[in-house]
Specification:
With 141 residues, the protein is α/β, with parallel strands linked by helices. It has a single domain, classed as Collagenase (Catalytic Domain) (3-Layer(aba) Sandwich), CATH 3.40.390. It is 48% helix and 21% strand. A four-stranded mixed β-sheet has the order 1-2-4-3, sandwiched between helices. A hairpin with a 5-residue loop joins strand 3 and strand 4. The longest helix is centred in the last third of the chain and has 18 residues. It is globular, with a radius of gyration of 14 Å.
Amino acid sequence: MESVISFNDQTLSLPSSFFNNLREWIISTAKFEGYRVGELIITFCSDPELHKINLEYLHHDTFTDIITFDYFTDGYISGEIYISLDRIKENATKFKKSLDNELLRIIIHGVLHLLGYEDKTHDQKNVMDSKEDYYLSLLNK
């Protein structure tokens, strides 16, 4: 199976250059973790759109920065990742990070969820944060 990674910017606010090298980064991350990438769709949307998805599919009446739907099959990570650019902008300001850094962090966060990592407990969150930092450092080299 060939890796198919698609980016869908519903907000039309991200420059096309932002997506350079992201496919290779995601594929390398999965490979390092012992998996291959099947079909992955990453959609960038607004708060209202992600809130609607959160209500409809997860029955959560909250705003969030990311929702990941996992379609793992036969050793291939596959799925859909939805990211609210409104939340990313707010979080970048809140955490004093660049918009690009926060967006890349949340992208790899979603990929890590597809790789089986969770962040519900303090220990799980620490592992997830450490993995995010590691894979971000690889992209920046």
